Amino acid sequence: MKSKKIFILLPDGVGLRNFAFSSFVEIGEQMGWEVVFWNQTPFDLTEFGYNEIKLQGKPRAYTDLLKRAKISAELDYFEEKFNDSVYQTYKFPSSNRSINSKIKNAIVSQLKISHRGEKGIQKLRKKLKASERKSDFYQHCKDVLEKEKPNFIFCTNQRPVNAIAPLTAAQDLGIPTSTFIFSWDNLPKATLIVEPDFYFVWSEYMKKELINYYPQINSDSIFITGSPQFEPHFNLKLRKTKEDFFEENNLDLTKEYICFSGDDKTTSPNDPDYLRDVSKAIQILNKNRETKLGILFRRCPVDFSDRYDETLENFKDLIVPVEPIWEQIGRDWNSALPTREDIGLQINTILHSTAVINLGSSMVFDFAILDKPCMYLKYNVENKQKENWSVEKIYDFVHFRSMPSGKEVIWLKSKEEIAQKLKAALEDTTEEVERAKFWFDTINQFPAERASERIWDSINEIVDSQHYEAGKII
């Protein structure tokens, strides 16, 4: 029996963890698939024994301007449709430093003004594809597809503009296409840049969200699978003993560690101040504890700043940095790529920490899987680094509205209450952990460890069907 061929489209590095550094390929091969990565990352996946074809070329500059206009127009439309100003907070100011950037911004602004509302946005979506059809990149993609003849295209990320050409070329050739919605907070941000035939989402909650924002998408084209990013937490082979993990990372076996999980500079510009406040609280607690506390600091993998240096130096007796194992290929944040080694590091960081403290991170779910509580920072520091930033703005983001009760985490609403609430958390957090697990099951399909299997089952359902058309199996 001839095997079916799938192209796993990697337009950037964010899909590596879920689909290259996991059991995803192995599961597909066991189901009879020939798996080929259509790869535009700097990683050489042949080193891991994978088949790959390098994706060569780039989108047209005009396509990127159309993408920017579409995102801005959609956020304006969402604000109007849902009567909610939160969507304006997802916009980021564009640079106006050079003549070139000013010209681009003017074009984007005019495109947005001339494509207002649902009908205007639909025209922008069509123009995105039409623009890419004029590119050499599109022709390259079409040539590869005509030669390789894959049965299915699976895009690992719905956000990159460079995914438009390969998916459009496949659709023009009648090859079914799909995308995975990468993160739990993506849809409200208008980051759905591609328009494939089929969509893979984390949960029933996310399916409803997708239809809510994009009612033109056929419900039958959406498959609920969960996210593979949580599967490694269930892989016992990745776990190390406390002794080995502590020795490898210069941790003190006589201490109990709290993980401080850093955010990127945009999400939490005041992270060093929060880390300082947590450190001072732990100093207070340690005066009356036989087993001393320490802080295991895991910074955001794409934060390469020196902003924590002063705090790390001032509390070097308490804080042990355990650096994420990511590879920095270029200078931008999106040129930092995950590695297989970091998956194990993250899992053992969770396994051997008592709790996690952060500002609004999805690490709440990673810790809940291993029965560990999460504490969310929810106060504004003095001398804020960004004037237009506040914790109120962060926790008003739409994805936090998925929280069933608001009691899934321990809220730290001032620096003065950190010590007291941390002390209580170390004694008993059974209720918070159970609520966090329920929240996790709301935003990610249960059981979490079978996400890859469900994705492959859905792909088989699509391809094995005798007939299908765009967005629907018939």
UniProtKB/TrEMBL annotation:
Keyword Protease: no
Molecular function per GO: CDP-glycerol glycerophosphotransferase activity
Classification via Pfam families: Glyphos_transf (PF04464)
GO CC annotation, single: membrane
Superkingdom assignment: Bacteria
Keywords: Transferase
Protein name in the entry: UDP-glycosyltransferase
